[in-house]
């Protein structure tokens, strides 16, 4: 069952990103609470989306699958919107977010990850 293994691996990567984004937002908010609140809040939002995707990808139900689909879609939209905004209006992002410059600070994995999640969801069947 390769698709089950791929799903577990995908969920594990999402869990790592949830931790990384959450830690980044937490440290930034504690160290510089007013310097770039928008960027820090967006990193916190990314962490929450990654956490939701992690849990939803691990649960074998139609409802969890719908939540995973929504989380991956929201994440892709966030990366595209924040990535574009961070390039068009760099002054609005004095500190980077997880999604800045299309996830450049994380090797563009924040851009690739939702595409992988959506492809995996598309390539696997929904539970009965």
- What string gives the helices and strands in order? HHHH
Question: How many beta-strand elements?
Answer: 0
Structural class: mainly alpha
Number of helices: 4
Could you say how many structural domains there are in total? Answer: 1
Instruction: Give the overall silhouette.
Output: elongated
Low-confidence stretches: none
Largest sheet: none
- Report how far the terminal alpha carbons are from each other: 17 Å
Rg over alpha carbons: 15 Å
Helix content: over 70%
The share of residues in extended strands comes to under 5%
What is the typical, i.e. mean, pLDDT? 90
List its traits.
128 residues, mainly alpha, elongated
SSE map:
Blueprint (H helix, E strand, L loop, with lengths): L1 H30 L5 H22 L3 H27 L20 H15 L5
Helix pairs in contact: 1-2, 1-4, 2-3, 3-4
Description:
With 128 residues, the protein is mostly helical. It has one domain (2-123). It has 4 helices and no strands. The longest helix has 30 residues, at 2-31. The two termini are 17 Å apart. The mean pLDDT is 90.
């Amino acid at each position: 069952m390769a698709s089950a293994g791929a799903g577990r691996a995908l969920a594990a990567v999402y869990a790592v990103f949830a931790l990384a984004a959450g830690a980044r937002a937490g440290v930034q908010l504690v160290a510089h609470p007013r310097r770039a609140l928008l960027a820090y809040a967006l990193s916190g939002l990314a962490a929450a989306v990654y956490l939701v995707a992690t849990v939803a990808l691990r649960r074998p139900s139609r409802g969890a699958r719908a939540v995973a689909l929504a989380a991956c879609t929201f994440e892709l939209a966030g990366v595209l919107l924040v990535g574009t905004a961070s390039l068009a209006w760099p002054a609005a992002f004095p500190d980077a977010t997880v999604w800045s410059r299309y996830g450049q600070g994380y090797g563009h994995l924040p851009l690739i990850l939702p595409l992988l999640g959506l492809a995996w969801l598309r390539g696997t069947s929904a539970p009965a």
